[in-house]
């Protein structure tokens, strides 16, 4: 499989094409130091054989925030060195930190914007990026990733809504890219030519008057011209459309652009893959082979492989799926895809992040603060002697399913559904032995079965299947209701 072909990124050889993009964990204290929980979280990805681990956004400055990692002072380097070493000792995974500068936000709803920055303050930010990258190198990380996505400082310069009118002017593409160019030059000077420097930016801003993939192609091209070693794409996540909640600092993932950034269960799979593909093909045509990371609701190994085979991406980014099951790469490599704990995109992780609470996955057994350990004990879950006895009823617009509890160490149940004679898909994972399907439509035949799974993802055999044809509403009946 192409997924398991190694890739050389400026001397950093990643063992496969699976990348976990940065995901804030809230596991560090307010002091911003690497602690044991942080180490455990990233070592777990290494155990699962993730090719490139991007450590959550860490601050390059000392501005106040909730629990967030920092790399803003030499005092933080020892902790990062420990983290990098532990990951390297675990497997062939490579590890880079995502370094971020963000501006001030107040509980009143006020926020600092880039037009408020003086030239001296801008110079300081450039220096802070360079210093943080040097610390990343000192700590033994394999490279560094510049955070130029979402609502943060670098992304605000690149934005089509950049309000500045000086050398960093939002009126021109060159003006918008000036800050990134300065940061990249300063970082490169500090770390040298041989240290991989990646960048994350938005394929689309997804806000009113924000930029689209057309600008993103040029941004990617400039990054390639500047010697960025890999390009990781995200989407949305802006302050401009964030929803203000009384007494709470603005969280940039509460509006429509936030939905697009971490698309929930109501979005189809791969909603952004076409954007990464367009950007990749544009820079390739211009003669640059910088690897492009595609992310956004990619979880099925067949989809992931398909994107690589079709030349739509060079690396597959999976954030929530790898949080749910860090063993995804190992299981796929070993042909154990039916043991993958599939992300259901419920966004519990996102809500935890928003509320400054430790980020974990809804699908993990309740008491766990990290993904379940690799070792499995005992047998996989099994149905009782008389089977799962899955049954389905249609009432008041929804199909209600219930079944018997499975025996064994059950972590949850996957619910599978097919419409008419179409493909079977896992539509939900639930903890209890019942499920309400509220997205069904009259006139369609639905077929269901469920499987119990344990914390390691090992499943029972499928339950019995049930099939229901929902009545097609008659125009005459609808008229009567009116
Ligand atoms: C809890 C959480 C924290 C995140 N933190 C970051 C972050 O620190 N930096 C970043 O660039 N993206 C962050 N993201 C966005 C993800 O990296 C990713 O782009 C997004 O979740 C879509 O990918 P997915 O569908 O594979 O989850 C975060 C997402 C989640 C759910």
Q: Any ligands, ions or cofactors bound here, and which?
A: flavin mononucleotide
Regions with little confidence, pLDDT below 50 for 5+ residues: none
Largest sheet: spatial strand order: 3-4-5-6-7-8-9-10
CATH C-level name of the largest domain: Alpha Beta
Helical content (DSSP H or I, runs of 4+): 25-40%
Count of extended strands? 17
Main sheet attributes: strand count, strand direction, barrel closure: 8 strands, parallel, barrel
> What value does the average pLDDT take?
96
Please state the structural category: alpha/beta
Q: Give the termini separation.
A: 57 Å
Content of β-strand: 15-25%
Overall outline: globular
The helix/strand order is EEEHEHEHEHHEHEHHEHEHHHEEEEEEEH
Rg, nearest Å: 24 Å
CATH superfamily placement of the largest domain: Aldolase class I
Number of helices: 13
């Amino acid at each position: 499989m192409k997924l398991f072909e190694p890739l050389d990124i400026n001397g950093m050889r990643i063992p496969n094409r699976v990348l976990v993009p940065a995901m804030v964990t809230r596991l560090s204290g307010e002091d911003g130091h690497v602690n044991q929980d942080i180490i455990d979280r990233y070592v777990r990805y290494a155990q699962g054989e993730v090719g490139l681990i991007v450590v959550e956004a860490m601050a390059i400055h000392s501005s106040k925030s909730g629990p967030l990692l920092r790399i803003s002072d030499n005092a933080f380097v020892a902790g990062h060195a420990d983290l990098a070493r532990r990951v390297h000792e675990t497997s062939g995974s490579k590890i880079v930190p995502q370094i971020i500068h963000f501006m001030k936000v107040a509980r009143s709803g006020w926020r600092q914007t880039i037009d408020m920055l003086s030239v001296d303050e801008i110079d300081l930010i450039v220096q802070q990026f360079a210093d943080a990258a040097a610390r990343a190198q000192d700590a033994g990380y394999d490279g560094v990733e510049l955070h130029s996505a979402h609502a943060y400082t670098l992304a605000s310069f690149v934005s089509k809504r950049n309000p500045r009118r000086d050398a960093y002017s939002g009126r021109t593409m060159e003006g918008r890219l000036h800050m990134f160019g300065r940061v990249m030059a300063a970082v490169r000077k500090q770390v040298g030519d041989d240290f991989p420097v990646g960048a994350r930016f938005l394929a689309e801003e997804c806000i009113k008057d924000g930029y689209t993939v057309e600008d993103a192609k040029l941004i990617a091209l400039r990054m390639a011209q500047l010697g960025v070693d890999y390009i990781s794409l995200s989407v949305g996540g802006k302050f401009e459309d964030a929803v203000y909640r009384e007494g709470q600092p603005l969280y940039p993932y509460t509006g429509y652009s936030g939905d697009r950034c971490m698309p929930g269960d109501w979005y189809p799979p791969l909603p952004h893959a076409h954007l990464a593909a367009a950007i990749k093909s544009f820079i390739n045509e211009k003669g640059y082979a910088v690897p492009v990371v595609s992310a956004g609701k990619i979880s099925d190994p067949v989809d992931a492989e398909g994107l690589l085979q079709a030349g739509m991406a060079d690396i597959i980014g999976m954030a929530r799926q790898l949080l749910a099951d860090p063993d995804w790469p190992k299981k796929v490599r070993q042909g154990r895809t039916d043991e993958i704990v599939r992300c259901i995109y419920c966004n519990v992780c996102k809500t935890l992040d928003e509320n400054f609470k430790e980020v974990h996955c809804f699908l993990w057994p309740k008491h766990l603060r990290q993904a379940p350990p690799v070792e499995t004990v005992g047998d996989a879950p099994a149905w009782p002697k008389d089977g799962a006895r899955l049954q389905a009823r249609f009432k008041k617009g929804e199909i209600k399913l219930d079944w018997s509890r499975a025996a064994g160490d059950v972590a949850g149940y996957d619910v599978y559904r097919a419409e008419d004679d179409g493909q079977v898909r896992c539509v939900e994972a639930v903890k209890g032995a019942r499920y309400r399907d509220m997205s069904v439509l009259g006139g369609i035949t639905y077929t269901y079965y469920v499987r119990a799974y344990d914390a390691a993802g090992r499943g029972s055999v499928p339950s019995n299947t049930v099939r229901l044809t929902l009545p097609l509403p008659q125009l005459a009946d609808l008229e009567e209701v009116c």
